């Protein structure tokens, strides 16, 4: 978890995040990953075009992290070194991945693509986004109850 406060961030941090989100959403819309019917066709092996989209994204990410972690520089907007955040494969990771996979398979949409789907005019997806918010709240609430800390909100890892 980051200990950096909003006041310590570079003034361009939020605008750059917004721009990155807009580019990401545009890419999801352009690749048609924001259309549940296209994703469901991919998951049923009827249309493997999205395999190239995801493969390209994974390749760009892999190269970026491979290069950025070898450079002896810090991130321009945070001043922190580039590092990979590796986590152990525990029960929470497996359960969370399973829930994500089942939800993606049933609905044909994942959280990022759901927001992009609103941008291309798919307004009924707002029900799914509401469900995502409700699920995230329930996860935080239950996690806080299990840890015995009911006074503070628990953020995502």
TrEMBL record:
UniProt keywords, alphabetically: Membrane, Transmembrane, Transmembrane helix
Membrane-crossing segments per the record = 12-30, 50-71, 92-118, 124-142
Q: Which Pfam families does this one have?
A: DUF6691
- InterPro entries, from UniProt? DUF6691
What is the name attached to this protein's record? Sulphur transport domain-containing protein
């Amino acid at each position: 978890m980051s200990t950096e406060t909003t006041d310590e961030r570079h003034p361009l941090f939020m605008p750059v995040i917004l721009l990155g989100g807009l580019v990401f959403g545009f890419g999801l819309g352009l690749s048609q990953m924001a259309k549940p019917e296209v994703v469901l066709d991919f998951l049923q092996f009827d249309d493997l075009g999205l395999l190239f989209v995801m493969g390209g994204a994974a390749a760009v990410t892999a190269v970026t992290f491979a290069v950025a972690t070898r450079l002896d520089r810090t991130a321009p907007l945070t001043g922190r070194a580039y590092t990979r955040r590796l986590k152990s494969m525990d029960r929470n990771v497996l359960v969370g991945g399973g829930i994500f996979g089942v939800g993606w398979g049933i609905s044909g949409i994942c959280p990022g693509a759901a927001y992009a789907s609103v941008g291309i005019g798919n307004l009924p997806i707002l029900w799914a986004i509401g469900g995502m918010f409700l699920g995230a709240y329930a996860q935080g609430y239950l996690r806080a109850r299990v840890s015995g800390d009911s006074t503070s909100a628990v953020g995502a890892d």
